[in-house]
Specification:
Helices cover 76% and strands 0% of the residues. It folds into two domains: 130 residues, no CATH class; 88 residues, no CATH class. The protein is built from nine helices and no strands.
């Protein structure tokens, strides 16, 4: 009888996984998420550049990404003359980008290998062989364009990552202002017996991360030159506004 009762008893669902603590999320989960976002942005920017070379700017080839790199360097030199994180941001970041280029492409032998594959095949006088040599030379030239575009896109990506790092104080400032403004409005709502909306709170809370992540991913992945303030300043303001609404609509009583 007891065996029948045991068999007929419904099986309990497994317990949900225990959520990570604050320090685990801050020191482990968040860095890996940032690394994943950077890798996805770099891969997406490379794919977009390859598609552009194949269909939209085949005449320019790798010169398109090189032009973007030059324009982005000018934006950085003009807009980041001062920073709370670095005393001389332009010189320091240029040294970092140069060191990254030296390590990734020169010391690794990648640029030397690119020079070796540019050697065209010789003329043999045979029509079939000449046709194959011409096709292989064209394929080598196309491969060289894509590889050089990868180099320029990687350098643009490194520069944009540095710009995002230097923009961290802007996001921190808007977040602090958003928290302060939201807490003041929450206290006014609490002591004034105003209406409390959990719907607004939950939707504003979900909007905080996309408000910061999506513009940064778009900025890192853009295949054309973008003035940083056109994306980063609205992203910081939207993040601060989302935090303010979240804190202001938080429940009155804990």
């Amino acid at each position: 009888m007891s065996q029948e009762n045991t068999a007929s008893a419904p099986s309990q669902p497994p317990a949900p996984p225990k959520p990570h603590g604050f320090f685990t999320v801050l020191l482990w989960d968040t860095p890996w998420r940032i690394i994943g976002m950077l890798l996805v942005s770099l891969l997406f920017s490379l794919v977009v550049e390859y598609i552009g070379i194949a269909f939209f700017w085949p005449e320019q080839g790798a010169a398109h990404s090189r032009e973007v790199m030059v324009i982005e360097s000018g934006y950085f030199a003009e807009g980041f003359t001062q920073s709370l994180l670095l005393s001389a941001p332009v010189v320091t970041v240029q040294n970092w980008v140069t060191a990254g280029y030296q390590w990734l492409f020169v010391d690794s032998g990648f640029m030397a290998w690119l020079q070796t594959i540019q050697t065209p095949a010789g003329h043999t006088g045979n029509g079939v062989t000449d046709g194959l040599n011409a096709w292989s030379a064209q394929a080598i030239q196309m491969g060289h364009e894509y590889l050089m575009a990868s180099v320029y896109v990687s350098l643009v990506f490194l520069m944009r990552v540095m710009i995002l790092v230097l923009s961290i104080p802007l996001f921190v400032l808007t977040a602090v202002v958003g928290v302060a403004d939201g807490m003041v409005r929450r206290d006014l709502r609490r002591y004034g017996a105003a209406y409390e909306s959990s719907f607004l709170y939950h939707h504003a809370k979900r909007f905080v991360k996309p408000a910061a992540y999506i513009p940064c991913v778009l900025y890192l992945s853009a295949p054309f030159s973008v003035y940083p303030n056109l994306l980063l300043l609205p992203a910081a303001l939207l993040t601060g506004a989302a935090i303010s609404v979240t804190m202001g609509s938080f429940k009155k009583y804990l």
